Amino acid sequence: xxLRILENVPLAPLTTFALGxxxxxxxxxxxxxxxxxxxxxxxxxxxxxxxxxGGSNVVVADEGVDGLVLRVVTRGVVFxxxxxxxxxxGVLVTAQAGEPWDSFVAECVGRGLAGLECLxxxxxxxxxxxxxxxxxxxxxVSETIRSVRVLDRVDLGVRDIPAEQCGFGxxxxxxxxxxxxxxxxGVSFGLRPGGAPxxxxxxxxxxxxxxxAPSLARVRETVVALRRKKSMxxxxxxxNRRCAGSFFTNPIVPAADAERVARLxxxxxxxxxxxxxxxxxAADGLTKLAAAWLIERAGIDKGLRRGxxxxxxxxxxxxxxxxxxxxxxxxxxxxxxxxxxxxxWGVTLVPEPTLLACAL
Length: 360
Prior knowledge:
Order of helices and strands: EEHEEEEEHEHEEEEHEHHEHEEHEEEHE
């Protein structure tokens, strides 16, 4: 695939927020050799390289992005039988980075392969999944990733990084912490044929009702329906469509801080008992709080509007662009939400989308 370097390419149409300025240089690469060639070209020009996937989890500065924006559009999915799961037969599924995520999940579910069903309806591309360690409804992609194929920006070599070296955490990975080191080219997943769906999340369990053994397809269908009710599925008719899903991650705090928040909620008459404050055990003795609960109890309501941006009418974790706005407006609203939560609860929210050439 010959390189076609473009100049001053608008990035807003390539993002779900539909915000931001142009890329000084832009290229799409459809194979490993083209990706390496693009990196060599950028190095020769003294340019930084920014990787853009499906644009569903990014915020682009109004001024745009200097340097080269590289978009990986590799396609293809391969299914291989394997016995790599503690001697239990499974299927190794390798998907190229440019594959649309939800279509990939749908194909796996359609083949009766368990492991990704609760991640249905998430926009974006396969290549972004390990970077963000995408998760929803009690399931994380790190549970099934076996390796990530990458292009090393240092020596332009291609290699497969095993899952145990990816540094996965809550909405986190080594790739996210060191964004300038690798370009993700593909991901291999270990899935279980005929496996039971993961039903670990209370909201999903309630939605399934009394169904004792729902199929993978039924769980996928239910997850998509739940996401659609929250405007978390891309829909051109949805007034909340210009967003990036949850704008903030759920805070992971020391247990003592979680107890302090619970006591504050009781003292302020928001709840009758500290047990009513949503929180869950996290790794290393920490506690996960619910960002949406904190935001709503800080006085930020669904449907709040600030000019051309606002809070989704269906989910207070989603910031939306109503059209005709700027990234500066969006970030000002994000700072308002973050500040209200910090002042009210003493908890600092962390943005989930990648901020390109801008900061909160």
